[in-house]
């Protein structure tokens, strides 16, 4: 019998079907009813930007401060993977890939246009030309600096940590493991991944659509094509996406890495080209001053909502808030890709590299291109460039015309944009397939090709119908709920990092310092057993009380009055030596409980526990220091432990410098 061969797929039905329905639905609405959809989504976007912009401001601020804290904290030396893991890629390749995925076409699109738009904006026109130029650089630095990369960094860090440290799937759902535990495998996890997939698809589609327009504009400037029209858009997209598919199916180790390395070299070449042939002294001086202004105004820029400057509010919504929303909407895609290439790095290395190196390069790039354009506009072009500020597609190439060898530079620029296009598309296909398959290790190549075809088709349909702006608005709207999700990433990370640090730094039990090996069989039985409340109370009533009674008698024979106290809630017994001038000495043992891990309850090769709650005798002290489990102590070992603490107590009160700290006003014991 002939059997129809079954097409193998690694796509997850719970992710792919809801995602495609939503993607196709929004895309069709944007294509069939572009104006209606654009107006509707734009109204929603404006409502969010005007009334809920503070969510973006606070979310981004908290993310920046949290990452800086992690970088300098004790958690910074934790490795993204096993403690002995090593980075898979060289430092240069790693930086090249995260840089190409993180900014890509945006650097080429906004490198000249954003500084020029700020410079020519009426909001900054009240000051001198010098102030306008300084503000243009400062706000460009702000929008493309640490804040942008912190947004990418928190997603990449959370994904890397839980994927390589906890060995969970490289998926956004894994970042919620400390909060949701095994629920991440079900509908909650699918919902998170659907959101990430749709956000990634919308972001890449709109970026690629605008990138095609800029490439066509450059080709028109160089007379490679007679005019920019839809027919040429189709040809450009088909060629470039085909190359992107070839790069994507070859994998991260080959196509993506090689193209990213080539692109960084191309960008650096263009950068030095403009720096050397442009107003070099002016650029170096303005970069130095710009860095100083950025550092000096960092916190005021971070928290400034321009609420007292009504004339600046529209600019604030259209630039700062739009940028925060745009970076947030792109963060699932960029974060996933960064995580994919970051195994083996330490948290400190990851944050320092992701926050500082791309930021520094962005500052250099924006200074060289943007400030060169402003300088040409002031000294040579006589305002011609500022008049083109609203046309970023043509502005870059018109700016290059004022440099020597403009044809060569323009050709190099187009080549860089083309490679950025390919690297954005191929890493996008790679990431979308990873999300849709729950990070399957091996997937059939037709799935990657399918994502490329879908990207191409929808980008061209929307470009032809004028629906890209509507899709861009949808992308920005999705940033609002994801900003809250990113804050939950911080909560998850912090919970996990605390456990991680405690696991590797927790010392041996205090009780083990007394062990000689004499009672090892009895101790093994105690270690692998779990106690109920009654058995712990029995231990306190026998071993603990007997030890305290014997101590009380010995203290009395040495002229020291000791008292044994009993309490019911929680059940505990303590020995107390009262003092008039200094704190009382107290050593007690209480009946304490803790909840057992679900893994321990389900594991066959671990001690059996009948209930999820277990009890143990825990020591406590009069000065509220942290106690410990004393169930493995014999009577004599418990006496020895009390005497250790009493000897410590005598040493402390005998030192003159401790008089204020140990005064009797602090006589507060456990209640």
Automatic annotation (TrEMBL):
Name of the protein this chain belongs to: Choline/glycine/proline betaine transport protein
Any one GO cellular component localisation term in the record: plasma membrane
Transmembrane segments: 12-33, 53-72, 92-112, 141-164, 194-218, 230-252, 264-284, 321-338, 350-368, 408-436, 448-470, 476-498
Organism: Myroides indicus
UniProt keyword terms in alphabetical order: Cell membrane, Membrane, Transmembrane, Transmembrane helix, Transport
Similarity comment text for this entry: Belongs to the BCCT transporter (TC 2.A.15) family.
A Pfam family it matches: BCCT
Keyword Nucleus applies: no
């Amino acid at each position: 019998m002939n059997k129809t061969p079954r097409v193998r797929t690694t796509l997850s039905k719970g992710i792919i079907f809801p995602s495609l329905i939503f993607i196709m639905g929004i895309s069709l609405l944007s294509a069939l009813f572009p104006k209606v959809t654009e107006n509707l989504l734009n109204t929603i976007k404006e409502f969010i930007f005007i009334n809920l912009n503070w969510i973006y401001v606070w979310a981004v601020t908290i993310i920046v401060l949290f990452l800086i804290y992690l970088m300098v904290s004790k958690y910074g030396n934790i490795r993204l993977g096993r403690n002995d893991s090593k980075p898979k890629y060289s430092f240069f390749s790693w930086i090249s890939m995260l840089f190409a995925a993180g900014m890509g076409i945006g650097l080429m699109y906004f490198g000249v246009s954003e500084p020029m738009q700020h410079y020519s904006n009426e909001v900054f026109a009240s000051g001198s030309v010098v102030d306008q130029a300084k503000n243009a650089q400062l706000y460009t630095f702000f929008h493309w600096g640490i804040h942008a990369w912190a947004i990418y960094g928190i997603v990449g860090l959370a994904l890397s940590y839980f994927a390589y440290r906890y060995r969970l799937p490289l998926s956004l759902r894994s970042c919620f493991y400390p909060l949701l535990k095994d629920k991440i495998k079900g509908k909650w996890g699918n919902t998170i991944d659907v959101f990430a997939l749709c956000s990634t698809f919308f972001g890449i589609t709109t970026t690629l659509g605008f990138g095609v327009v800029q490439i066509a504009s450059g080709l028109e400037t160089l007379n490679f094509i007679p005019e920019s029209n839809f027919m040429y858009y189709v040809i450009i997209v088909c060629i470039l996406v085909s190359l992107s598919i070839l790069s994507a199916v070859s994998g991260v180790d080959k196509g993506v890495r090689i193209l990213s390395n080539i692109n960084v070299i191309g960008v650096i070449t263009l950068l030095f080209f403009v720096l050397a042939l442009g107003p070099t002294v002016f650029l170096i001086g303005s970069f130095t001053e710009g860095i100083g202004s950025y550092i000096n105004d960092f916190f005021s820029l971070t928290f400034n909502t321009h609420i007292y400057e009504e004339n600046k509010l529209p600019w604030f919504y259209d630039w700062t808030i739009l940028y925060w929303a745009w970076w947030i909407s792109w963060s699932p895609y960029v974060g996933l890709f960064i995580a994919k290439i970051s195994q083996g790095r330490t948290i400190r290395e990851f944050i320092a590299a992701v926050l500082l190196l791309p930021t520094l390069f962005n500052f250099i790039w924006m200074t060289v291109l943007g400030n060169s354009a402003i300088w040409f506009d002031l000294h040579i072009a006589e305002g011609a460039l500022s008049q083109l500020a609203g046309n970023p597609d043509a502005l870059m190439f018109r700016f290059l015309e004022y440099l020597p060898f403009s044809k060569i530079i323009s050709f190099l620029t187009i080549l860089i944009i083309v490679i950025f296009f390919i690297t954005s598309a191929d890493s996008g296909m790679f990431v979308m397939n990873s999300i849709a398959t729950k990070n399957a290790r091996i997937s059939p190549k037709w799935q990657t090709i399918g994502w490329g075809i879908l990207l191409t088709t929808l980008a061209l349909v929307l470009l032809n119908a004028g629906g890209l702006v509507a899709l861009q608005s949808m992308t920005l709207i999705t940033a609002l709920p994801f900003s809250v999700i990113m804050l939950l990433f911080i909560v998850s990370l912090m919970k996990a990092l605390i456990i991680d640090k405690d696991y590797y730094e927790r010392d041996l039990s205090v009780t083990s310092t007394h062990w000689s090996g004499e009672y090892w069989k009895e101790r093994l039985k105690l270690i692998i057993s779990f106690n109920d409340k009654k058995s712990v109370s029995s231990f306190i009533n026998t071993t603990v009380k007997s030890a305290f009674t014997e101590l009380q008698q010995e203290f009395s024979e040495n002229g020291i009055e000791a008292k044994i106290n009993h309490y019911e809630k929680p059940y505990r017994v303590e020995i107390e030596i009262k003092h008039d001038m200094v704190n009382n000495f107290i050593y007690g043992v209480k009946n304490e409980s803790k909840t057992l891990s679900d893994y321990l309850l389900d594991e066959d090769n671990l001690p059996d526990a009948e209930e999820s709650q277990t009890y143990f005798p825990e020591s406590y002290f009069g000065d509220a220091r942290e106690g410990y489990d004393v169930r493995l102590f014999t009577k004599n070992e418990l006496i020895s432990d009390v005497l250790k603490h009493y000897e410590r107590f005598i040493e402390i009160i005998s030192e003159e410098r401790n008089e204020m700290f140990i005064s009797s006003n602090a006589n507060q014991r456990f209640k």
